[in-house]
Amino acid sequence: MPDAITRPTPPATAAAWSRRDTHPVNIGGIWVGGGKPVVVQSMTNTDTADVASSVRQVADLWRAGSELVRLTVNNPESAAAIPRIREKLDMMGVPVPLIGDFHYNGHQLLAAEPACAQALSKYRINPGNVGFGRKKDLQFGQLIEFAIRYDKPVRIGANWGSLDQSLAAQLMDENSQRADPWDAGRVLREALIRSALDSAEKAVEIGLPRDRIVLSAKVSGVQELIAVYRDLAQRSQFALHLGLTEAGIGSKGIVASSAALAVLMQEGIGDTIRISLTPEPGQPRTQEVIVAQELLQTTGQRAFTPMVTACPGCGRTTSEFFQELAKVVQNHVRGKMPEWKISHPGAENMTLAVMGCVVNGPGESRHANIGISLPGTGEAPAAPVFVDGEKKLTLRGDNIAQEFVALIDEYVEANYSRVAS
């Protein structure tokens, strides 16, 4: 008889992965790179000058789990609003670091609004539009000098959609002289990477330490992003920010982001991520934060909230009750997690199962910390509950959802140490 196949167990924590060695960057108390867990960030889509709306959205993003939040700073009104936004967030007990997103006129805005320069925890600079012609190096240097003066890190973020055209033209000319010229796509990828790397080296020459620089080189295609970041990771030790520049709307944006970022993170590339989803009409901005967390959790990088394994349904599960219960359970644990994170640390590692029939229900439920196997079509109206692999009790009647949720709360109380308040 052949030997039994031993299946490898995927790593459960960030520490189990082989991470690329990068310079650690302190962004308002949140560490990015240097082997630290991958950080989730997001960006507002409010008018930054509308202080009330911006404060509300930043707070919502932070409560959803965004560890860094970026805001557009594009005119004098938005720059003047930043310190007021910071003050109101502090009064609300929302300590999330704020990042200023600058294009074209950042040097002017920071000069005119020193309170903005101080209130921000990081500046984002796009080398493709920081300035043009002879003004480019001057204005880039001014932004770096502000970062040095106020002791702030920067993200030097090159972007496919606003590529440095002079650099692209230079590399195209150089390519034409090659004995074996590259294709145009490779030349443009090289221009994107060089834009980020050359700008970072200029910042270092001016006096910004390497541990205050994060790089990004964003494109909108999955394979292009993977190729760019693999190359970028080989050519520097700067911390890297990952994300498609425009992921798209709905399932397209989620799938594209997951396809690209999962591959890179599996290779140890990436220190902070953003899922740049176009919000569907009526949907909250926080969806991009949830997707980022779920991507990190399902790939074994970090744990944010208990994971719920749920049956997809088939002809054996004509009732929709298991779907409704799965939603109730998912919403319950996500809603409780901000409290549990403080009072019962470790609860985010809990696994749950909501299964719809006898085929896989008991087996999946035994694999979870707490699982329930609901009756499928024609099965006895009973729902066995398994706790840490052992059948604990059977639920029946009209209150299964409430009783199962209560069991989850009891499990958390019993198995994750309560922190004294």
TrEMBL record:
Its EC number is 1.17.7.3. InterPro entries: Dihydropteroate_synth-like_sf (IPR011005), IspG_bac (IPR016425), IspG_bac-typ (IPR004588), IspG_C (IPR058579), IspG_TIM (IPR058578), NO2/SO3_Rdtase_4Fe4S_sf (IPR045854). Pathway: Isoprenoid biosynthesis; isopentenyl diphosphate biosynthesis via DXP pathway; isopentenyl diphosphate from 1-deoxy-D-xylulose 5-phosphate: step 5/6. GO terms for biological process: isopentenyl diphosphate biosynthetic process, methylerythritol 4-phosphate pathway; terpenoid biosynthetic process. Residues 22-292 form the IspG TIM-barrel domain. One of its GO terms (molecular function) is 4-hydroxy-3-methylbut-2-enyl-diphosphate synthase activity (flavodoxin). It catalyses: (2E)-4-hydroxy-3-methylbut-2-enyl diphosphate + oxidized [flavodoxin] + H2O + 2 H(+) = 2-C-methyl-D-erythritol 2,4-cyclic diphosphate + reduced [flavodoxin]. Residues 308-409 form the IspG C-terminal domain. [4Fe-4S] cluster binds at residues 311, 314, 357, 364. Keywords: 4Fe-4S, Iron, Iron-sulfur, Isoprene biosynthesis, Metal-binding, Oxidoreductase. Its cofactor is [4Fe-4S] cluster. It comes from the Bacteria. Binds 1 [4Fe-4S] cluster. Converts 2C-methyl-D-erythritol 2,4-cyclodiphosphate (ME-2,4cPP) into 1-hydroxy-2-methyl-2-(E)-butenyl 4-diphosphate. NCBIfam families: ispG_gcpE, PRK00366.1. Belongs to the IspG family. This is 4-hydroxy-3-methylbut-2-en-1-yl diphosphate synthase (flavodoxin). The gene is ispG.
